[in-house]
Amino acid sequence: VHGLDKSCISLYPTTKYTHPRPAPGEGLNQKALCTLSGIFPSNSTSWNSNEVYRALQGPKLQKFISKLKKTAYTKFVDYDPETGTWTFEVAAGEWYPAA
């Protein structure tokens, strides 16, 4: 990983990486399964995972998962509300704009 910022992971950031990016399927340009931990709604009043988990029940949990499923350039795999662990896939050969 060449760049890690809030809401962005870059393997070949255009501002730092001056060499041609590898073709899809070569180098780090592969389909990837990504797992991020500690992913909770931004309006949570506490980062205590047990408190967030209790607050994320029923419709609130479904709304948050729906938001994760709509994240551009990703394919939703799973979300564990107790740990805030979000798992998703990204395709090889695609370059995603920074959000």
Describe the fold and architecture.
The chain is α+β, with helices and mostly antiparallel strands. It has 2 helices and 5 strands; from the N terminus they run βββααββ. The strands form 2 sheets. Strands 3-5-4 form a 3-stranded antiparallel beta sheet, covered by helices on one side. A two-stranded antiparallel ribbon has the order 1-2. A hairpin with a 4-residue loop joins strand 4 and strand 5. The protein is elongated.
Class per helix and strand makeup = alpha+beta
Low-confidence parts, pLDDT < 50 over ≥5 residues? none
- Range of helix content: 10-25%
Give, in order, the helices and strands. EEEHHEE
Beta-strand percentage range: 15-25%
Which geometry do the CA atoms define?
Answer: elongated
Task: Count all strands and give the number.
Answer: 5
Strand arrangement, largest sheet?
Answer: 3-5-4
Q: Helix tally? A: 2
